[in-house]
Amino acid sequence: MPTTVLATKLFPPARRSGLVARPWLVERLDSTLEPGHRLALVSAPAGFGKTTLVAEWAAGHDRVGWLSLDDGDNALPRFLAHLWAALPGIRVPPPAADVPTTAALTALVNDYASQPDTVLVLDDYHVIEALDVHEAMAFLLDHLPDQLHLVVATRADPPFPLARLRGRGQLTEVRVDDLRFAAAEAGAFLNDVMGLRLAADDVLALEGRTEGWVAGLQLAALSLRGVSDVAGFIDAFTGSHRFVIDYLADEVLARQPAAVRDFLLRTAVLDRLTGSLCDAVTGQLGGDRVLDELDRGNVFVVALDAGRTWYRYHHLFRDVLRARLLAERPEELPRLHRAASEWYAAQQLAPDAVRHALAAGDDERSAFLIEEALPEVRRARQDSLLLSWVRALPESVVRRRPVLCIAAAWSSMIAGELDRMGRWLDDAEAALAAGDPGAVWADTEDLRTAPALILVYRAALAQARGDVAATVLCAERALELAGPADHFIRGAAGGFVALAAWAAGDVEEALTTFATAVRSLRAAGNLTDAQDSTVVTGDLWMAAGRPSQARKTFEQALAAATRNGEPYPRVTADLHVGLAELDRELDDLAGAEEHLETSRILAEHGSITENRHRWHVAMAQVQVARGDFAAAVRLLDEAEELYWRGSYPELRPIAAMRARVHLAAGDLVAAGAWASGISDTVSYLHEYEQLTLARLLIRRGDDVLGLLDRLRVDADGRRAGSLLEIDVLRALALHLRGERPAALAALRQALAAAPEPERYVRLFLDEGAPMLALLQDAAPDEPLVRRLLKAPTASPDPLTERELDVLRLLDTELTGPEIARRLYVSLNTLRTHTKRIFTKLGATNRSGAVRRARERGLL
Predict the structure, then answer these.
(1) How far apart are CA 585 and CA 759, in angstroms?
(2) pLDDT at 378 over 90
(3) What was the pLDDT predicted at 582?
(4) DSSP readout, 50-69?
(5) In which element (H, E) is residue 462 found?
(6) Which phi and psi (to 5°) does residue 66 adopt?
(7) CB 304 within 8 A of CB 367
(8) How many Å is the maximal CA-CA distance in the chain?
(9) What distances in angstroms separate CA 118 from CA 3, 62, 827, one per listed residue?
(10) Are 698 and 663 in contact (CB under 8 A)?
(11) Of 30, 31, 326, 358, most Cβ neighbours within 10 A?
């Protein structure tokens, strides 16, 4: 569901006549346009004129994009949609819901790198609390092209790397001491702008009382209208900010006509104001007229567009109004929020409609609105928004609504609370059986298919618990309930049948069934899920012993992701991890690291939830190949923290991977401690563990042939990838028992039977010198064997083609950022390439690397 963009968020406040000129601050903001500057930060408490200053400065420049933030922008998809809408001249399309944030922002950066100077203003950034939005902005800051300039106005410093920017001279700051009005400015404001006739001593006294606080001066000026004892008023103007705010709010509100005061209090529940919305909330007509009068009377409304149809209250004034409303008319709050919710729902602005319904305490209406929005929210994968809605409702309300129970079950699965997930599914079935006692359910696709949807989630729960039989049973029952047009049910349930076949080791069946399921997901419009499926498909091809087909799957998906310059979908990061694992198996460690670096950048906001741990696993395997076992263990520890039991079968337990690292490091004691709890049941779900145990037994000199024979029977005819590994270990075990002829025969048979043995370089290298000796006698003329025999004494890693591209540009006058733009990569990626080049050439700096490259004939 595309995010509806509220146009008034994109306009700076309309300029007022008679503002107090502050040319030195405008000049300071001009410095943000200088090359190398990344951020102009205007940070001060409420009421210090931040927005006014930035709007005045922005009015003097062309190509300025303005975005006024609100609480709703804590949802990352909504924030990005508004960001795209605010930027002038942007040529890349807004990111779809399934696109990783870093990929979208990379496209944005690349676009503006070839555009004229452009300014982006983010006003009221202090409302942002969401970590993923902060991370997105930090990424953008790190990669801003010289042509794009960022200005942020906020009440509190954002969690950006300000110290680093300050140390590099890339930060322009305007803070509270800069924004305070001096006596002369206070006099100009009070007498010229606000129309008072205060003596110089009164101005000085009031400026001292307010400490130059512009909002305080404005509140004081409004209160002073018609006051005869100015000196007495100023003398009484003391105390804490809260006291002053309360005092002046009483004075301002008390001096307004009753109808205006009523309007102010009732509309205080709104973040933004327009005539028809105010009419809906107040229950009266004339909202446009009242807003115009408030605007002309300087009563703390800020025009949001040049046509002055949308406004907002000054935040501080709005807070005061809300406090008064709560104190004086608490019984009105539910009705006011309900009216706002109805207005927003009529405008098809579901997030605002739900927010006001929740604020009204109208749980049934909130639940109904959520149910209506849920199918599109799920299709767009706005999971965080959906989960926040469900968690805001009382559990008693959710339990009466089967669709919301299913959503709650999904939230429990994401949190790793599998038992709680099961209870929510029980509640969903109970709610369906009980009917609709007193609650009105939204008539949606999810309600119609709820019985089948419950079974799909039960299949997911069984899969997470490793119960293959229950997974198949629930998924097949869901398929029986699904109609021909129920594409999502058919795709999801079919996917779990395929995953169960995978978990059972029937790889060919899994590949066929999974392809059918993916077609159903595409037909349902669940494109994100369909894109995610390419990772599973690639893994299945690996299990089938066809790494070349896995690579083709990943590369075709990547090509589709970048076709026509479209932003990357979130699966892109995971595809790079898959390619890294394939490169590592080919012993192309530099290529694997390059894919992992790309994945690391893309995955900051875009990795599949169940794959978040996988980057660390892949990097750990690279570190093992490089001999850094301590680093590998640390990476696996990090992977374990990120892993959660979800829809994918757990085929490579992290504990078993860690045991393999211990074996590679020669620590048989640590590996033996792990092995004490290993099941002796032969199945594909335990195969990785048992092959790890087999390696331990071989290292100990224990008999392992019986175990390998049982594993071979299970894999034969179903998993060529497993069969090759089993036979390699069997040949090694026979060799170490002194049965060399049998070992050579087993190895030759393994090489002949495997579809693509030449793509399993690390499988042989990781078994060390005994395996290499066997290969030399078994098949000395095979290209794979010749490559393997050279590997232990190979020369240092050659430069990759990409590194050669970087090296050629290092031999120019281009700066680092210019090289990064030329290569269409981030500065961090360029630094990674440069570091590898220095290491491979034995250099410590750019000039040294160029000199060494010339000596080797590379330039």
Answers:
(1) 7
(2) no
(3) 95
(4) HHHHHHHHHTTSSSEEEEE-
(5) helix 450-464
(6) -125, 135
(7) no
(8) 113
(9) 24, 8, 20
(10) no
(11) 358
Question: For residue 850, how far is the Cα from the chain centroid?
Answer: 39
243 pLDDT tier (thresholds 50, 70, 90): very low
Q: Cα separations (Å) of 652 from 540, 630, 657?
A: 13, 20, 7
Query: Which one, of 206, 178, 183, 189, lies nearest residue 44 by Cα?
Result: 178
Please check whether residue 332 is in contact with residue 325, taking contact to mean a CB–CB distance below 8 angstroms.
yes
Average pLDDT (168-172) is 89
Residue 165 has pLDDT above 90, yes or no: no
Report residue 394 as tokens: 């009382």
Residue pair 636/616 in contact by the 8 Å Cβ criterion: yes
**What is the crossing angle of helices 769-778 and 740-753, to 10°?**
80
Q: Within 10 Å of residue 327's Cβ, how many Cβ atoms?
A: 9
Per the DSSP assignment, residues forming a β-bridge with 40 are: 151, 172
Per 3-state DSSP, the chain is made up of helix, strand and coil in percentages (nearest 5) of 65, 5, 30
Let me know if 355 is exposed, middle or buried by CB neighbors in 10 A (0-12, 13-18, 19+). buried
Rg, the chain, Cα only: 33
DSSP notation for 426-459: HHHHHHHHH--SS------HHHHTHHHHHHHHHH
| Two structure tokens written together for 641 | 């923290």
Q: Cα separation of 234 and 229, whole Å?
A: 9
pLDDT at residue 238, rounded to an integer: 45
Nearest to 457 by CA among 488, 485, 487: 488
Residue 57: beta bridge partners? Answer: none
Residue 244's pLDDT is 53
- Look up tokens 């006596």; give the residue: 183
Q: How far apart are CA 749 and CA 728, in angstroms?
A: 10
Contact residues for 203 (Cβ-Cβ < 8 A; gap 6+): 183, 186, 187, 190, 191
Mind listing the pLDDT tens digit for each residue in 4-47?
777 788 888 877 666 787 888 888 898 888 887 889 999 886 77
Which amino acid belongs to residue 548? S
Report phi then psi at 303, rounded to 5: -70, 135
Q: Which residue has the tokens 């959906």?
A: 386
Q: Cβ(513)–Cβ(519) under 8 Å?
A: no
Q: Is the pLDDT of residue 84 over 70?
A: yes
Judged against a pLDDT cut of 90, whether residue 349 lies above it is answered with no
Torsion angle, CA of 522/527/528/529, rounded to 10 degrees?
A: -10
- The number of beta carbons lying within 10 Å of the beta carbon of residue 415 is 12
Q: What is the chain's length?
A: 859
The residue whose two tokens read 């305490």 is 361
Q: Give me the helices (H) in 586-702, please.
A: 589-602, 614-626, 629-642, 654-664, 668-675, 684-700
- How many other CB atoms sit within 10 Å of the CB of residue 734? 22
Encoded amino acid at 653, one letter: P
According to DSSP, the residues that pair with 122 across neighbouring strands are 67, 152
Q: What stretch of H or E contains 154? A: strand 148-154
In DSSP terms, which residues pair with 313 in a beta bridge? Answer: 301
Cα(540)–Cα(284) distance, rounded to whole angstroms?
Answer: 64
Going by C-alpha positions, the residue among 326, 267, 331 that lies closest to residue 300 is 267
DSSP H or E stretch at residue 783: helix 783-790
What band does 304 get if pLDDT is binned at 50, 70 and 90?
Answer: confident
Question: Which pLDDT does position 607 carry in this prediction?
Answer: 60
